[in-house]
């Protein structure tokens, strides 16, 4: 039932208050920037806004019924007329939750509250603690609340908890969470049969009955509130957290959690921890890059490519059939030198290091997360989320009912046949769209490469090889141009499949908010994974691997126009590096600009009328109404952005050791951009709990395992590390242990006369008899001509051996590290046990004290009876529970 006996709401009627529990109160003048009702006492916990359309009777009736039901629950409402608003057409309904409502639903939601001051000493002394002084924030900002032992609130045992002031016992974030829980389940329409209710503020927002529903910020972000009873936590967050010049300061996570709730707090905790761990990866990656730079002059194969005597005399076969001509090897001189910066011995070390780093990151995050779970009262939260907080959409769409064995109450459920059918249809749709996105990405990348390569080669085509400009590098220019085109296509596809993922998830009708977010997370990540990484996977593992040889090239889909692409003599690694840098950097720069600029411009445009109003006429609810709504999926997109970045720095990091450095710089900016926009550009989100980062944790773990495999394959098959080592130790023709002669050894020979029948005579220069191509095959004068030689099989065996050894070594270290580092710190485990022990002990003492009072004040009988209990002022509905013991106590 939505009725609560003994509670009377009050509404504003003109300039007078309707008489309620507190009697009649005159309308008083007060600051419109206040977060309290007009009486200056009752706090505004939530605000609803609407534009009254007198011609739409249905919306008026919905609002009347809905607000009436809210009052029956016990919420108190106060309406601001449209004449009081700055646009002259918007009504604002302010909602206050009195103590009885808060206590009732805090009991229902099992919200943990303090019952005893924490008596465990904090012995976490940090050696040389003075070094961290420049990075610290004031203590009242870092720890805005004392440390308490907490327990789930029980309304019938309210004396057990540390309640000093009922008005401030529940913080504003908890108050708005409770109110939203009521708003999401309050009915606004009952059908004629009376068995199905239409309910929830979300549906009222969707059908336009209300235009917005939001909790209030407690002050303006640039100045403190004039009301001394207001905390002004928003101002503190902006001053110490959201300003960019605080980028080197620690984050006030406890204040973030107190103001925005645990779900947003744990996101910023994860983002901050991820950024801290990136520092170590960035340092090692930079050292590896510097090593490649310092060994620049030792690069023998690049010297041979750039040499006029060697690279200038090697004529290469065409890289495509129609637009391409023969070319000299020395035009790839620049790209060869650039490739050495990333393709050197340090690449192997860094790939192994990142495999271990990602394990340390995940394991240490689990420990950090376990500590936050205890400190933020999130232990055993998942069960609460699953059992109590059903999605209103689930309750509305599921007409069948069954008994919940845990709560012993009838609840809606989705039949197993319907559930299986929806899951199968959803899975098939996801696979179809993943295939479509993969195909589109592959075709778009091929077309981008073809278009850019053709345009560049158009100016360099000549029958005389000597006129080719020596400073032009068509392969590198092609890679850059194609990567830029591919990035634009990626951003366009984003707009399409995001809507598809939401539609598919809605079709499945998830039961809880947690289940909905997890399902949407998996789908969105699959689409993003394919969209962002397809071109990188293609360049790393497919391009140049199945091309055949001159006269017998391999064509895709049997088409004579879709010849498989080749890598340049320097290898595909530099092209993979280019693709990774452009897509990763472009996404990060565009993401930060979009996150900061778009909400600022929309808020600037939306509040242009109010900017000319004096502060006294621009109320707190109107200020927040003009801001952007954060939305249910606002935090989801923040996680998705960071996880995609995580994939770039782990899956393909062997090709670009500076990727962690770029990610570190971006994340330092990202933390402050997210804090700034959340504090200044968005309405205050409804506080929500989350005990972890959810499904993202499993996704990160899966990517960590996959990264070991991909980096091993990149070192083995994409870079030239293994062929060079095989040549150095097995195939060099001189006594010195160096790379002299490697280029000539790594290029096979093709006799153009074998292809003469397929070419026009004027296309073959007179001086051209042989051309070279990248492979290990027998020469044309051998009886096994153009077949793979023994060196090819030796290199293949070495590559496979390297992959097996590297994977086993890294996985063994990963599992050993994971085994050595417990997920929950020992001190946290002890604190949890201590809190449970103190809870039981305090409850036992409370019970014994009540029993002692009862024994003094009452006469007891052997069957736990009590006589004349009313004369001591006790009511029967206040009895907590009865326990019969040999002493026959009746406990209250």
From TrEMBL:
It holds the Pfam family Anoct_dimer. InterPro entries: Anoct_dimer, Anoctamin, Anoctamin_TM. It is a multi-pass membrane protein. The keyword Nucleotidyltransferase does not apply. GO terms for cellular component: plasma membrane. The chain crosses the membrane at residues 267-294, 345-365, 430-456, 476-497, 646-669, 792-821. Keywords: Cell membrane, Glycoprotein, Membrane, Transmembrane, Transmembrane helix. The keyword Transferase does not apply. Residues 36-253 form the Anoctamin dimerisation domain. GO terms for molecular function: chloride channel activity; protein dimerization activity. It comes from the Eukaryota. It is found in: Cell membrane; Membrane. Its main location: membrane. This is Anoctamin. The gene is ANO5.
